[in-house]
Design a protein that fits this description.
Layout lengths: L11 E4 L7 E7 L14 H5 L6 E5 L4 H5 L3 H6 L4 H16 L5 E11 L1 H11 L12 E5 L12 H13 L9 H5 L3 H13 L21 H7 L6 E7 L14 H11 L5 H10 L34 H25 L7 E7 L9 H6 L8 H17 L6 H5 L24 E5 L16 E4 L3 H15 L6
Parallel strand pairs: 2-3, 2-4, 4-5, 5-6, 6-7, 7-8
Antiparallel strand pairs: 1-3, 8-9
């Protein structure tokens, strides 16, 4: 069986405008659950639509067992979190050599989506936040993915280490590293994939661990202490992150509890019931009942806990639990970690253009256009990203925010002065459109600023709840 990808992967792709001189730089870290993907993302549309004001770099890094195999034996003989260290080396290379391509090494922004966004989070907290701006000045985390993060020698990574060894044809206990080093790359790729297939639905087999050197703490704890690197952060998520990762057969609360126990095996029955209490919804899943995007404001009692574009009832309850615990709440925690300081600041957003499932914002950021997003919306989104990369402030003009084709393009708009995130007055920019493009339908921007804490029936409270569960998850 052939597996996608190539382990000869430690390359960078640089996209630099002609004649570039001391331009800011964005370094892109791809997603894929730490087990899939590559650095082939084309950054030119984002660069060109921002007047060629910055340089783009896209990296590769080791994935699956090659990048994230962990155990005491691995640590004794080398390093764990090799994939994260690959990224750090790539960023350091950019700092050292991007001047050869017309880049300014003092103006580096790291950016990523999903596992790439999670990787950004790990670099934000690297070395207990003691790196400052050594590697980068700013960061962008799109849907920062936060799976379990056990210690490198804990039971879970150790059991997967031995499962990987057995799948590769080596012993399932004791010292196995020398045997593994004698196997071919193809054999090891197959073994890595086998471990993933044996895991919980929607997850990959290998992921970052607490290594005590680069990643010293759980993000939920360190972000609370606000020990972070860099100075400025743009972070957000999609409105419906969960459906791709939650099995679609949840009808009753009993079904939901079975899945929750698999997804969060370290939680006690009491803690699982607290998760349910934090997400109140007694309705059964009903395929004949309405399914639609909520507006975030709990209008008519509809919110992400009980209603979504692909599910309702207990299925949607599970979808939202996963979405918040793994993607949305880490974004909230990151935003808060960069708030309340004279030297740091952050900006929080939600991408809501239907159907805003995981990865939906990638098209808006990089293209290509598949007819789902109006041009005015893409302009607003990309200009916000570009402005942040260049200046550290994603604010856009009234015309860009309203849309050049709107009835009042120059009317005052709150994103002309995008509010920084503050825990006591938390603001969220909601990026949406007035509809979905169709034949004969004119669609425009519907970009607003809302209270992040009360959003979707008090998501802020649920994120506080999940943060307190962090040591038990662990996350």
């Amino acid at each position: 069986m052939a597996f996608p990808g190539d382990e000869d992967c430690l390359f960078l792709n640089v996209a630099a405008p002609a004649g570039a001189t001391k331009l800011p730089v964005v370094v892109w870290i791809h997603g894929g659950g730490y087990g899939f993907g590559d650095g082939a993302q084309d950054l030119t549309e984002l660069i060109n639509d921002n007047g060629k004001r910055f340089i783009g770099v896209a990296m590769n890094y080791r994935l699956g067992a090659f990048g994230f195999l962990a155990s005491q034996e691995v640590k004794n003989s080398g390093v764990v979190n090799a994939g994260i260290l690959d990224q750090a080396l790539a960023i350091a290379w950019v700092k050292s050599f991007i001047c050869q391509f017309g880049g300014d090494p003092s103006k580096v922004t790291i950016a990523g989506q999903s596992a790439g966004g999670g990787s950004v989070m790990y670099h934000d907290i690297a070395v207990n936040g003691g790196l400052g701006s050594l590697l980068f000045e700013k960061s962008i985390a799109q849907s920062p993915y936060l799976p379990y993060q056990p210690n490198f020698n804990a039971a879970l990574p150790t059991s997967r280490y031995y499962a990987f060894s057995a799948a590769a044809g080596c012993p399932s206990s004791g010292s196995v590293l020398s045997c593994l080093r004698g196997k071919s790359s193809a054999d090891l790729q197959a073994a890595s994939f086998a471990v993933t297939l044996s895991g919980v639905y929607g997850t990959w087999g290998f992921f970052p661990v607490t290594d005590g050197v680069y990643i010293k703490n759980l993000p939920s704890q360190q972000l609370t202490a606000k020990n972070v690197n860099g100075k400025k952060l743009l972070v957000g998520f999609n409105a419906n992150e969960g459906p791709l990762f939650v099995p679609g057969n949840i009808t009753t609360q009993a079904d939901l509890l079975v899945w929750l126990a698999q997804q969060f095996p370290n939680l006690t029955p009491t803690q699982l019931n607290l998760v349910l209490a934090a997400n109140p919804n007694s309705a059964l899943t009903n395929p004949a009942a309405p399914m639609f995007e909520t507006n975030g404001l709990n209008t008519g009692g509809f919110n992400a806990v009980n209603t979504g574009p692909t599910a309702n009832g207990q299925q949607q309850r599970g979808n939202n639990i996963y979405a918040e615990a793994v993607f949305a709440c880490p974004a909230y925690w990151l935003a808060e970690a960069y708030s309340g300081s004279s030297t740091k600041s952050s900006y929080l957003y939600q991408f809501s253009v239907p159907v805003a499932m995981h990865g939906a914002d990638i098209e808006a950021t990089f293209g290509p256009d598949v007819g789902r997003l109006p041009g005015d919306f893409t302009t607003a989104w990309r200009k916000a990203w570009g402005n942040f990369i260049v200046s550290g402030n994603p604010s856009i003009t009234n015309v860009e925010a309203n849309g050049a084709g709107s009835a009042a393009p120059t009317a005052p708009h709150p994103l002309s002065a995008w509010p920084t995130f503050d825990a006591n007055n938390a603001k969220l920019a909601n990026f949406n459109t007035t509809g979905v493009p169709a034949v004969g339908v004119t669609v425009g921007n519907a970009i607003t600023v809302a209270n992040a804490n009360s959003w979707e029936a008090y998501r802020g409270d649920r994120c506080y709840f999940y943060r307190n569960l962090g040591p038990a998850i662990p996350a």
